[in-house]
Write a structure and sequence with these properties.
9 helices; 2 domains; 57% helix; 14% strand; Heat Shock Protein 90; two-stranded antiparallel sheet; alpha+beta; 7 strands; five-stranded mixed sheet
Length: 352
């Protein structure tokens, strides 16, 4: 077992389950910068209150800041470990436990500092000084917990809005896939009923995977499998006019993509490209990984003088917005004309 899996809690999905947590995921650095900045600012406030601005003592500020950072960082480690264990007991009780935990850490750090300062001396441990550290820490600890709590609530609200936005975009693209597939079946009923029946059976399996999956992100291998099924159905309709080449590189494990993101690209390649060419052509699908970025490109021939009037780029805009919602502004949907071929590329980072 790797140290990361042993010491860090599992990554939580984007969901309203985040609302059960009192604090951000401190184990992964969420809010850590704010904790450090607040600790330094409060240390500065204490130093100014002691000596004033005119006679500001940098040495005193350094001592206070050193003590405050130790308390803050040890507190972050402790809160990181206990955050997920406090789920289910209520935010009020969780906040009280976290507050007392920070005060206990302040007492331990204060006692350790006193022991170091009195090392080799006869003064011993001065509990009054330790109590001073605890009292001075009491108010900043409350402010810090309040800051982390508000940050977590804002994060929950943002993720809830993101979830609703993604679900809305997902709901728009699925009927588009459904209606176009039904039109394809209708075109086969009169000419080849047996083939139409096979297409209906294949579509049943296809829709079972596409429409019953409640997740917004799916493994890339599942999306590719769904696209292979879709192209097999189109192959039944277009016959030898449609050829598909798959060039799948080693993109690693755990790569995900929004469900039904690549299928609309292939649908456009068939509908606006292969279908309008008497001789048909080849749709090339290439998946590559470069560092922390995944690139999926679809290349298809087309005739610029023959275009469907229907089909604005609403489906591609939908795909682009869903990629950006999941992976941020670094996600891209790009279109390039290469002679008599059209290339659509989806690229996005592995993490955001």
């Amino acid at each position: 077992m790797r140290w990361r899996d042993k010491w860090l809690p599992p990554r939580r999905p984007i969901s309203l389950y985040e609302a059960d947590y009192l604090l951000p995921d401190l184990c992964r650095g969420e809010g850590l910068l704010g904790v450090v900045v607040i600790s330094l600012l409060l240390s500065l406030l204490v130093a100014v209150a002691r000596s004033g601005i005119a006679a500001f003592d940098w040495a005193d500020f350094g001592n206070v800041a050193f003590l405050a950072l130790w308390i803050a960082l040890l507190g972050v480690v402790a809160l990181c470990r206990c955050n997920r264990w406090l789920v289910g007991i209520g935010h009020a009780r969780s906040a009280a436990i976290c507050y007392l935990l920070l005060l206990a850490i302040a007492a331990l750090v204060g006692a350790a500092a006193e022991l170091l300062l009195s090392w080799g001396g006869a003064t011993g441990l001065r509990w009054g000084r330790v109590l001073d550290v605890v009292v001075v820490t009491a108010i900043p600890a409350g402010i810090l917990l309040r800051y982390l709590y508000l940050q977590q609530q804002l994060r929950v609200q943002q993720r809830a809005e993101l979830e609703a936005r993604i679900q809305s975009l997902q709901a728009r693209i699925r009927p588009h896939f459904l209606f176009n597939s039904m039109n394809m079946i209708a075109s086969l009923i009169g000419s080849d009923p047996e083939k139409a029946e096979r297409v209906v059976e294949d579509l049943a399996d296809l829709f079972r995977r596409a429409l019953t999956d409640a997740q917004t992100l799916v493994p890339l291998r599942e999306e590719l499998a769904l696209c292979r099924s879709y192209m097999a159905i189109e192959k039944l309709r277009l016959g030898d006019r449609l050829r598909t080449e798959w060039e799948i590189g080693d993109y690693g494990a755990g790569v995900q993509i929004p469900c039904l993101s690549l299928q609309p690209v292939l649908e456009n390649a068939v509908y606006h490209g292969i279908q309008l060419l008497p001789a048909g052509g080849t749709v090339e699908v290439r998946v590559q990984r470069s560092g922390d970025r995944i690139s999926v490109s679809v290349r298809n021939p087309f005739n610029p003088r023959m275009r469907h009037n229907k089909g604005s780029r609403s489906a591609m805009d939908n795909v682009r917005r869903r990629l950006e919602a999941h992976f941020g502004p670094r996600a891209r949907v790009e279109f390039v004309t290469d002679g008599d071929h059209f290339v659509t590329t989806l690229s996005y980072p592995l993490s955001w």
